[in-house]
Amino acid sequence: MAKPKGRGPVRASIYVRISRDLTGEELGIARQEEECRRLCARLGFEVGEVFSDNDISATKGKVRPGFEALLASQPEAVVCWHTDRLVRVTKDLERVIALSVNVHAVRAGHLDLSTPAGRAVARTVTAWATYEGEQKAERQALANLQAAKAGKPYTAGIRPFGYGEDHVAIVPAEAEAIREGASMILAGESLSSVARKWTQAGLLSPRSIAAGAKAWTLRGVKKVLTSPRYIGRRTYRGEVMGDAEWSAILDDATHYAVVSILSSPDRFSGGPRTGRTATTLLAGIAVCGVCGETVSGRGYRGTKVYGCRQTHTRTPRDIADERAEKATLARMVWPDFLPPVLAMHAGGSDADTAHLRAEMKNLRERLNGLALAYAEGAISLSQMTAGSEALRGKLEEVESKLSGVTGLPPLDSVSGISGLIEGWADAPLPVRRSWVAFCTIVTLRPANGKHARNMTPEDHVSLDWHHLAGDGEE
C-alpha cells in the first residue's frame, strides 16, 4: 500500500534486471541502479532495498529471485529503469498491481497502480511489451534458423569446450581430452572416470567456470561426448541442420558409437553397458565361475574389473588379462600346436574370422543402440540417421575384410607363431582377443569372502586350453 501522508519521505525499493549478461560483470544492472538512484533523488525518495535479477529473462517463465523478493517486501514504491525491466507479461503485472503502489521508471514515467486509470495504462503498456517481445522472439528465431542452416556458429553464449572464443578455432588440449574421453567410453569406462580425468587435468568447461563449479558433472561430460558439434555438425533445437563452419574433433564413426553407448535405454549406473564386448581383452570371452555368463568390463571403486550381470565376481582386469595372455602364449609354444593350426589354415576354417565377427557384432549392437535411443527420445531422427550411415560404412568395411579372410586368427605366413609371440604386446586388440578365445577357456572366480589383497591370481582366474582337432582329443 502507498505510504500515508505526513510520515516522512517515501522509502522506494529499486528493481533492476537484464536478460543477458554476456560478460558476467553485472555492468548493465549497475548502470540501471545508478540512474534509478538519481531518479529517487529528484523525486525526494529515500532509497530502501535494491533488488536485482542478472542474466534472467522476464518472458521465459523462469523464477526471478529478485522480483519475488521485491513482491514479498511489500514496498512503499518501486523505482525501475524501465517498466519492461519490472514486468513483461500480464501475469507478473497483476502481481505488482496487487501491491497498489506507485511505479516510477527512469525511461517510462510514472504508473499509479492504486487507481483504475493507472492500472488500465499499465495493462496496456504491458500488453504492447508482450507483443513486441513475441515479435522479437520470432525474428530472432528465424535469424537463428537461417544461421544454423548456413552452418554458422552461435556465438552469443559462452564458448563451447574444445573451441575458442570465436566458437570455431580448436583448443588443442581440450580437443585431445574429448578424443581421449570418447576412447575411454568405447573401452568400457564410465562417465565418472572421464569426468575425473578431465577435472584432474584442470580442463573445466568454460560454462562450469562461469558458474563457479570446480569439477565436471556426469551430465556435462555426456553432453559433450554426444554433441554433433564435435563432428562438425550445426544443430538447431536438437536437429542437425548440416555441416558447420568449424572443424570436427571426432570422426563420425567414433561419435555415433559413443552416442549409441551413452544413449542406450539399457544403460544404468552399476549395471551392464552396451558397446563393451570388443573393447577389452576378455569381455564376451571369459565366463563367470558361478553363473557361466560371459563378463563385461566395468569399474568398481576406482578399479577396472570384469564382472557378470549379477556381479558374482569383480576380477581386476590387469590380473585376468595377464593370466589369459600368458596362457595363450604358453599354448602357442607347445610342439603339438602349430601342425593342426596350419592344417586348419589350409582347410579354410572360419576360426581366424573371430575378431572380425566380433567387430561386426559390436557394430550391429551399436546400430541397434541408436535405434533404441531414438525410440526412447534420447536422440533425434537426424542424429540416428547420420549415426546409422556412419556405422554402416564401418560395418561394410569389416564385412569386406571378412569376405577375403579364411582360416584361423591372423597369422603371418613368414614369421608364423614365433612372430606372433614376439609382437604380441603390439598386436591390435581384436587380434589378441581372437587368439585368446581360440586358445583358452577363461573362468573368473568369486571372492567367496576373501579380501582381494589376500587372493592370488590363481584364486581369481581359472584357465583351461581349447583342444584342437587332431591333437589327440575327441
Task: Please provide a written account of the structure.
There is one protein chain. The chain has 474 residues and is of the alpha/beta class. It folds into three domains: 11-132, Rossmann fold (3-Layer(aba) Sandwich); 172-250, no CATH class; 287-465, no CATH class. It is built from 17 helices and 13 strands. The chain has helices spanning 27-43, 65-72, 83-86, 90-97, 116-149, 172-186, 191-200, 206-210, 218-225, 252-263, 317-332, 338-346, 354-375, 381-403, 416-422, 429-439, 457-460; strands at residues 11-18, 46-54, 77-80, 102-105, 109-112, 233-236, 239-243, 287-288, 296-300, 303-307, 315-316, 440-444, 461-465. Helix 10 crosses helix 13. The radius of gyration is 33 Å and the shape is elongated.
Search tags:
474 residues; alpha/beta; Rossmann fold; 3 domains; five-stranded mixed sheet; 17 helices; elongated
Topology diagram in text:
Blueprint: E1 11-18, H1 27-43, E2 46-54, H2 65-72, E3 77-80, H3 83-86, H4 90-97, E4 102-105, E5 109-112, H5 116-149, H6 172-186, H7 191-200, H8 206-210, H9 218-225, E6 233-236, E7 239-243, H10 252-263, E8 287-288, E9 296-300, E10 303-307, E11 315-316, H11 317-332, H12 338-346, H13 354-375, H14 381-403, H15 416-422, H16 429-439, E12 440-444, H17 457-460, E13 461-465
Parallel strand pairs: 1-2, 1-3, 3-4, 8-12
Antiparallel strand pairs: 4-5, 6-7, 9-10, 10-11, 12-13
